Amino acid sequence: MADCDEPQCDLDTDERLLPKWWSWTWPCHWFSWGVFGLGIALLGFGIFTLLTDGTSEGLILGSIALFMMGWCCPNPFVQMMEGFNLSADPRRWSSPPLPPMKKSDWHMDRKYWDEKFGDWLPNPLAKFEQDKPEIKLLADGDGWVVNCDGKDSERFSTPKEADTYIEQKIKSGERMNAQELLFGDHPRHNRYRALYNATPPQFTSRFLFHILSVLFLVGGYMAIPRESREMMAYFPSFLLVVAAIGVIYSHFSYRKNMEAWDTITSIIKYVDGGHGELFGQIRPMSNSPLKILHVDGCTAPSWTFDDLIAWSWNYTCRETWTERYYDQESKTWKTRTRTETRYIRGGSYASDFMVHDGTGGMFVKTSTFERIDLGDTLWERNRRGDKTCGPYDSARHGGTLKHTWSLSALKLSEPVYIMARMKSLPHDDIPRGTVGHNATRVHHTLQAVGEDAPRRDTRISKGTEFAVLSAKNSSTSRLGPLILLLLGSLVMFL
């Protein structure tokens, strides 16, 4: 794989990350370079054929070659995004979130001292609070020790004094800037500030190659003798339909992808009601154990999974067999190999969870979402774990069988992107207490639900926001070749 030149960003300057009008890009991968080289060779042969024979075949070959070369030239905006995201897998963290991804660091059960009951009671709103400062309370004989951010420890003789100290630390932490709390992969992090202000160039190398490809195609068709063109009358009609479908599909698919670009990702600490985006870490709503998954009922350890918020597993079977058939053309009996892939059984599950971005957490009502992307296959097996698993499928055609079990899931601590409507919780479901000391915070009173709105298709997707973003492109570069093909096919048709 060859290295790509990636635009660099200096957050302290206002320089453009990409040229306004023109940007040339070269292939980035060895496969793309191979196809690009093949395109150059085919283009050269086409031009040579055109100059020597003067036939239209040279133009048509050149059109195919130019299309291949344009396909190999990446969108400059894609290269820029890769530079920002450090080429990380967008389904996973590119920089580990802080605090570490252990349940013990998520203050799910941070306690407060209740004078009425004379005991430490769980704070129902602790899990909604920001991650810093990290506070740990330890009993030390007749006293109490409070550790803050792992740096300093204070000892107190009474629980009331320890509780007052904890309140002061939480109150001081509320003054922290959101940038100090946000996970590094959050779209509102300063590392991505320039990315979201960037605009794509109007013209690219891909645009140039595809424009020339269309011109060569139209020219090649027009160079064909009239008698031959009459025999190919269907060709302009076919191109006209392809171009029209391409323009319509490009327009609507791009508009849908731009929903993520145009919607500002909310910082949970300051989120408001209405439709918007959330990004953060998957966390449980309580310390209660999550449902354990035994894939296909198999109790073998390698088939058992915990800490899953949502999952989908499938058991498929592929049968391969040979059969004899009578060939009518040769009037002989022949043998052929047949395959058939069958879905045997499967299962799915989804539970509600909390999304936390470092500044705060919010309840996600998973059951209200119709679109949940669990990402790529997390686990796969080709043999049954033990006898507790569901029964094997049997051969239907007397052939050999290949069994496959696969699992996709959302796990605790993984990154998740959510397009949702932020809606008030029912009054009786709102947890009582205070989030820090700021009464204006409302995120613990809201829930993210899957209610669509115009240009807002709600969804839950595994990974960072970059896993769902489609690279920007100018209208000229995106639609120019298709519109030219549409006009060219009309000329050929008429």
Overall description:
The chain is an alpha+beta fold and 494 residues long. The protein has three domains: 22-93 and 192-262 and 472-493, no CATH class; 103-180, no CATH class; 268-467, no CATH class. The protein is 28% helix and 25% strand. It has nine helices and 20 strands. The protein has helices at 30-53, 57-72, 76-84, 159-173, 193-196, 205-222, 226-231, 234-262, 475-493; strands at 22-23, 111-114, 119-122, 135-140, 143-148, 152-156, 203-204, 274-283, 293-294, 304-305, 308-327, 332-350, 353-356, 361-364, 372-373, 379-381, 400-411, 415-424, 446-449, 459-462. A five-stranded mixed β-barrel has the order 8-13-14-19-18. A four-stranded antiparallel sheet has the order 12-11-17-16, with no helix packed on it. Strands 4-5-6 form a three-stranded antiparallel sheet, with helices on one face. A hairpin with a 4-residue loop joins β2 and β3 (119-122). α1 (30-53) packs antiparallel against α2 and α6 (205-222) packs parallel to α9 (475-493). It starts with 21 loop residues before the first strand and ends with a helix.
